[in-house]
Write a structure and sequence with these properties.
By secondary structure, the protein is mostly helical. The protein has 10 helices and no strands.
């Protein structure tokens, strides 16, 4: 399956288990593929992300912050602020009382290596979508852009975070068709 993937796209998939372990998760989800994609050497998505005034490093930091807050996005935190709840202050107090990253959903044995991380069904679907995107756009290789399109195509934290920066599936896909 990976013979059509570029080095960057292949790296995002093969590095996803490292991000699953970093987040303390037992299975590889689309979020882990997204984190690995953002964490690739030389930030290959930055030219496309520049159109939206954001970098891979900034998105990865936002993704990590969301994970630290138990999955609450910046938009969720902003919505709670409108009713007087400062999520960062609440989580800060909890972490000062109980320890850092106590709410990040990581298991107690954080550093215990796991020999195998299975792909969640939605992650398999993401990879299928990426293959379809490459085929529909008549590309011989599957690139990081096809993975990004697949992540944008399905609801979840990646699409939500990218949407907060104005990056939406239909517009991004139209730009890829024109390229």
């Amino acid at each position: 399956m990976f013979e059509r993937f570029t080095d960057t796209a292949r790296g995002a998939v093969t590095d996803a288990p490292r991000h699953a372990q970093r987040y303390g998760d037992q299975v590889i989800t689309p979020v882990h593929v997204f984190a690995a994609l953002l964490d690739q050497p030389n930030a290959p998505l930055d030219p496309q992300l520049a159109e939206y005034h954001v970098t891979s490093a900034e998105l990865l930091a936002e993704l990590d912050a969301s994970h630290r807050r138990g999955g609450l996005s910046d938009a969720d935190a902003a919505a709670l602020r409108t009713i007087g709840i400062d999520v960062d202050e609440v989580f800060g107090r909890i972490e000062r009382s109980l320890g850092p990253d106590v709410l990040s959903l990581q298991p107690i044995l954080r550093d215990t290596p796991r020999p195998r991380y299975p792909f969640a069904p939605e992650t398999k679907q993401t990879l299928e979508y990426a293959v379809r995107e490459a085929a529909t756009l008549r590309r011989r290789t599957l690139t990081e852009e096809h993975l990004l399109l697949a992540l944008l195509r399905q609801p979840g934290p990646a699409a939500d975070l990218l949407g907060e920066h104005g990056l939406r599936y239909a517009e991004f896909r139209a730009r890829r068709e024109a390229a």
